[in-house]
Amino acid sequence: AQSVTQLDSHVSVSEGTPVLLRCNYSSSYSPSLFWYVQHPNKGLQLLLKYTSAATLVKGINGFEAEFKKSETSFHLTKPSAHMSDAAEYFCVVLTLGDMRFGAGTRLTVKP
Amino acid sequence: GAVVSQHPSWVICKSGTSVKIECRSLDFQATTMFWYRQFPKQSLMLMATSNEGSKATYEQGVEKDKFLINHASLTLSTLTVTSAHPEDSSFYICSATTWGQPAETQYFGPGTRLLVL
């Protein structure tokens, strides 16, 4: 069995400040991990993915995430938030064809 | 990169009618396709998994007679919402996986918004 927990349902930051969206996972096997972003009324867009290569993964739009096996975490970060980053973010764990989504974290960016 | 399309992107229908949603992998062969639904301000919930040429596997609580899934080829899966009712109004998203990658990779369609009046 596997699961994923996004620790914050809502994160609010000011424009230009760092972003941290937290994700913990549970999996019996070596998982693939993803972060997706969903803007209002839009489909999912892949930000980045971890697939057992480098533990620090760089994605699009300046986002990156670090896979920490000892902490079973895959937190998403960005050094400086932009207004266009405001959206819903989903952490996803994928093992042997079974994909599980986190509940999502809504990121609000204040001017 | 791999592209998955969905058609239609929007559909409005009367209660009691059936609605078919198509999911296509445009430039790769999808070994498996997944169907999700998403209620407003909620996460995606997996409805069913389908492999080409075989019956779909439904998640617990999903009525297979209500949500008919056909995966006739390696590039097309369809979801038919039969006798739709207002509570079926939702955002339906498909995704497709393909082998040959370092690890499993899943590609998402843009979603279909269904509104049942």
Textual characterization of the structure:
The complex is a heterodimer of chains A (111) and B (117). Chain A has 111 residues and is mainly beta. Chain A has no helices and twelve strands. Chain A has strands at 3-6, 10-14, 19-21, 23-26, 32-38, 44-50, 56-58, 64-68, 73-78, 87-95, 98-101, 105-110. In chain A, the strands form three sheets. In chain A, strands 2, 5, 6, 10, 11 and 12 form a six-stranded mixed β-sheet that branches. Chain A is globular and about 40 Å long. With 117 residues, chain B is mainly β. Helices cover 0% and strands 54% of the residues of chain B. Chain B contains no helices and eleven strands. Chain B has strands spanning 4-7, 10-13, 19-25, 32-38, 44-51, 57-58, 67-73, 76-81, 90-98, 105-108, 112-116. In chain B, strands 2, 4, 5, 6, 9, 10 and 11 form a seven-stranded mixed β-sheet that branches. A four-stranded antiparallel β-sheet of chain B has the order 1-3-8-7, with no helix packed on it. Chain B is globular and about 40 Å long. The model of chain B has no long low-confidence stretch (mean pLDDT 89). At the A-B interface, β5, β6 and β11 of A face β4, β5, β9 and β10 of B.
How many helices of chain A does DSSP assign? 0
Give the strand content of chain A: over 45%
Q: List the helices and strands of chain A in order.
A: EEEEEEEEEEEE
Tell how many strands the DSSP assignment of chain A holds: 12
- Main beta sheet of chain B: strand number and arrangement? 7 strands, mixed
Q: Largest sheet of chain A, if any?
A: 6 strands, mixed
**How many β strands of chain B by DSSP?**
11
Tell me the helix content of chain B.
Answer: under 10%
Name the structural class of chain A: mainly beta
Low-confidence stretches of chain A: none
Radius of gyration of chain A: 13 Å
Task: Enumerate how many helices of chain B there are, as a single number.
Answer: 0
Q: Tell me the distance between the termini of chain A.
A: 41 Å
Q: What kind of assembly state do the chains in view correspond to?
A: heterodimer
Distance between the ends of chain B: 37 Å
> How would you sum up the global shape of chain B?
globular
**Structural class by SSE content of chain B:** mainly beta
What does the overall shape of chain A look like?
Answer: globular
Helix and strand element order of chain B: EEEEEEEEEEE
